[in-house]
Amino acid sequence: MKNHTIKILLIISLAFNIAFLGGGIFRSIKFRKFPPIHERIKNEKVRNFMERRKEIGSPLRRDFYKAKDEFMKALTKPEIDEAEMQILIDELIAKQNAMEREVGNSMIELRQQLSDKEAKEIFGKFQRWMQPPEEKHPEPRRRLKKNN
Q1: Is 44 part of a structural domain of the chain?
Q2: Residues 6+ apart with CB under 8 A from 40
Q3: Rounded CA gap, 104 and 19, in Å?
Q4: pLDDT tens digits for 78-95?
Q5: Residue 128 belongs to some domain of the structure
Q6: What is the reported pTM?
Q7: Can you give the residue range of the structural domain that contains 67?
Q8: Is residue 147 part of a domain?
Q9: Is pLDDT of 11 > 80?
Q10: For the chain, what is the HEC assignment?
Q11: Which CATH number goes with the domain that contains 86?
């Protein structure tokens, strides 16, 4: 083999070895796991609210997802009964309504415990967290801009 070809093969081999080692090192890095949000919140009242909401909301959320699952299973049947589907939709809406009502009532209860300054800070964060993605980032990020 020519000296030039050996150098090219050596460089290619070296690149593959570096990529292989880099991939192994990357996979072995332990990423820091964030604790649940209610543990990261510094305000004691809000932390208690989040823990209580999780305790109260879990059965409601479970009921909602069970009703949603039943609705989806009914949609997979070969023959669907429209009256039965409407009943399932009504049940699903009722479960979601109960869940949203509990969240709203618990937020009102929290607001009554907070000062005006705390409420503005906390509910301002909640508002930003709950925004739909298109409002958070109105213009989609583009990797490459097209030249017209």
Answers
A1: yes
A2: 34
A3: 52
A4: 898 889 999 999 999 999
A5: no
A6: 0.56
A7: 37-121
A8: no
A9: yes
A10: CCHHHHHHHHHHHHHHHHHHHHHHHHHHCCCCCCCCHHHHCCCHHHHHHHHHHHHHHHHHHHHHHHHHHHHHHHHHCCCCCHHHHHHHHHHHHHHHHHHHHHHHHHHHHHHHHCCHHHHHHHHHHHHHHCCCHHHHCCCCCCCCCCCC
A11: 1.20.120
pLDDT at position 28: 67
The answer to whether 56 and 101 have CB atoms below 8 angstroms apart is no
Residue 138 · residue 69 · CB < 8 Å = no
In sequence order, what are the residues at sequence separation of 6 or more whose Cβ sits closer than 8 angstroms to the Cβ of residue 44? none
Residue 31 is assigned to a structural domain of this protein: no
Total residues belonging to the chain:
148
Instruction: Identify whether the C-beta of residue 104 lies closer than 8 Å to the C-beta of residue 53.
Output: no
Question: How many domains is the chain partitioned into structurally?
Answer: 1
Q: Do 81 and 39 touch, CB atoms closer than 8 A? A: no
